[in-house]
Design brief:
5-stranded antiparallel β-sheet; 5% helix; 4-stranded mixed β-sheet; mainly beta
């Protein structure tokens, strides 16, 4: 009798299914500044973030050619800011064009966090609302403009922000 009770008291959701959507990442696309609707690869891109105290973190992406990236956002508080360093032409001089030099831009992503209960096994996931991005200006920005396409991040398959370069 004890075995039957133990078997029926277990719930199917004791393990979070791999197909269950969890907290999504920010999806950023890179487009051509001259042809705004056309994707453009950011050459030799490296991306680093900052923690909530402003300390630089290790690379999220390292020296790769990409036309889009997925970035994790901080879950701190209701209103939050995540900062990222986007470095183009990392490790210059290693390819056929030694005249290119690394160029670093910093973006700030502003948003509010909303927690949604998924299940007992999966717990909560976050969605992000009121999304906006700021490019911190310097003497030589490689990111020229930005556009917020979706102000709510509920899944990471949709583009949320377009950075034009």
């Amino acid at each position: 009798m004890l075995i039957v009770i133990a078997t029926y008291s277990c719930e199917r959701d004791d393990i979070c299914a791999a197909a269950t959507q969890t907290t999504p990442h920010l999806n950023i696309a890179f487009n051509d500044i001259n042809v705004p609707d056309e994707r453009k690869i950011a050459r030799r891109l490296s991306v680093r973030g900052f923690d909530s105290e402003g300390n630089e973190l290790p690379d999220i992406i390292t020296n790769t050619d990409r036309d889009s990236i997925l970035l994790p956002l901080h879950l701190s508080g209701e209103s939050a800011v995540s900062r990222f360093i986007l470095e183009r032409d990392t490790d210059f001089g290693l390819d056929e064009d030694p005249s290119t030099e690394p160029n670093i831009d910093i973006i700030e992503v502003h948003y509010t966090t909303k927690f949604i209960y998924v299940s007992r096994a999966c717990g909560y996931k976050s969605i992000f609302e009121n999304l906006s991005v700021t490019i911190l200006q310097d003497d030589n920005n490689w990111i020229i403009s930005n556009e917020t396409v979706n102000t709510t991040i509920e899944n990471e398959t949709e583009t949320h922000i377009i950075l034009r370069h």
